[in-house]
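Please decode residue identities from the backbone states below.
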């Protein structure tokens, strides 16, 4: 997992953790988590500010 911040148009890594989430036998949960994280990572996603 990586947490980024956007400062003056430049992304900066705030936190990095490389242990994957374990969703053994539940691939839909892994896909749902990935989709949610991608959505959170979009700058101004849907007009929201973070």
């Amino acid at each position: 997992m990586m947490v980024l911040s956007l400062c003056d148009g430049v992304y900066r890594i705030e936190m990095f953790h490389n242990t994957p989430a374990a969703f053994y036998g539940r691939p839909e949960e892994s896909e749902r988590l990935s989709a949610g994280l991608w959505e959170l990572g979009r700058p101004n996603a849907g007009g929201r500010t973070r």
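Observation: The CA atoms of residues 29 and 35 lie 10 Å apart.
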